[in-house]
Amino acid sequence: RRWLRQHECVEKLNMHAILSASVGQEQLLTELLVTYAKIPVLIGELISVEIWKHKIFPVLCRLEDFKPRSTFPIYMVLHHEASIINLLETVFFYKEICESAQDSILDLIDYCHRKLTLLTARSTNRQTVTPVEIPVLVPPQELQEQAETMEFEISLKALSVLRFITDQVESLPLSVLTRMLRTHNLPCLLVELVEHCPWSCWEAGKLKKFENGTWYVVPPEDRVKMTKLDGQVWLALLNLLLSPECQRKYHFDGFNKSQLLKLRAFLTDVLMDQLPNLVEMQRFLSHLAVTEPAPPKKDLILEQVPVIWDHILKKNTGKWEAIAKHQVKHIFSPTEEELKLQACRWAQTYSLDMMEALAPDKPRCRVCGAEAAKRCSRCRNEWYCTR
């Protein structure tokens, strides 16, 4: 029950962040998250759910005697990761949030790297985007399908979070840059994303792109238009390659250099018209092609390492099956009464009244613009100050 209450709180925070961002009033929420040091807590929760998905969820799907009355409780755990990464994507735009993550920023970078690696691996195996007819699935299979769909969207959110972290490379600890450039070689991973572009594909002779949670057919005249996701990759590359500190630390060896020079084929005039900063990138790559950069200095430094992932694995190694069986018995086999109660709480969380309570602005009268207290009972959209 405590976890469910926490999930509801995260869900409400997520909705509040989205509503605040839509009207440009995120300052209060970001200040509270920084003041109460909640960003490391959210990152820890994010990695906990990720490990649960890798270690516990497959065991649940394999248990033959597990025939849940409802898969709703398991879906909520899967959805928890999506809620947290969505909240982080909304608030990580701000420098103060990045800095308040403290040492856990390394764990978040590792998390984003895992998601982008998965995204790159999946992009090489492109089949149908949306099946023509969905077969009737038994619950564990249905959950696995939902988990895979959600994993793709979570990975795209992780891309945005990573880009916001690269915006702040100058003010983050030295270990952050070392981990991004040397440990994970993020510039080469981002080149792979530019090359394979997992959020677009051809299907039946039509170009489809993924944006705002859905795949849509791109009209012929918009095929060269840059999407938000394309922009995130290019901006992350600009931050990592053109910063003097990054250039000093990155190792431009034969492999890295050949990978980066692949970008020249994508830097067309049409693309640079949409993102003028890419002119700098083109200039940098032209210079890189004809020079041999000096190898990075091997400084003797004490490097910080991420701890959340390793701590959770070390604490629970060898216990995964026992944990899964315990959760089946005590958490994922609720009674009819418990299911009804949770369904009511869930409905309340997503009710219109709740969203209005979370909205940063009070509704205004449709006629005079004064603060309104009465909503139209017919359309439920318009507000008025009097009856």
Please give a structural write-up:
It is a single chain. The chain has helices at 2-22, 27-35, 39-55, 57-62, 72-91, 95-100, 104-123, 139-167, 174-183, 186-196, 228-242, 244-249, 254-261, 269-274, 278-290, 308-316, 320-330, 336-349, 352-358; strands spanning 200-203, 206-211, 214-217, 374-375, 383-384. With 387 residues, it is mainly α. The chain has one domain (1-128, 138-251, 297-350). Strands 1-2-3 form a three-stranded antiparallel β-sheet, with no helix packed on it. It has a two-stranded antiparallel sheet with strand order 4-5. It is globular and about 70 Å long. The two termini are 41 Å apart.
What is the compact description of this entry?
The protein has 387 residues and is mainly alpha-helical. The chain is 61% helix and 5% strand.
The ordered string of helix (H) and strand (E) elements is: HHHHHHHHHHEEEHHHHHHHHHEE
Structural class: mainly alpha
Radius of gyration: 23 Å
Q: Strand fraction band?
A: under 5%
Strand order of the largest sheet: 1-2-3
Number of helices: 19
- For the record, the count of structural domains works out to 1
Percent in helix: 55-70%
Give the N-to-C terminal Cα separation: 41 Å
The biggest beta sheet reads: 3 strands, antiparallel
Low-confidence stretches: 127-136
What gross morphology would you assign? globular
Mean pLDDT: 87
Give the beta-strand count. 5
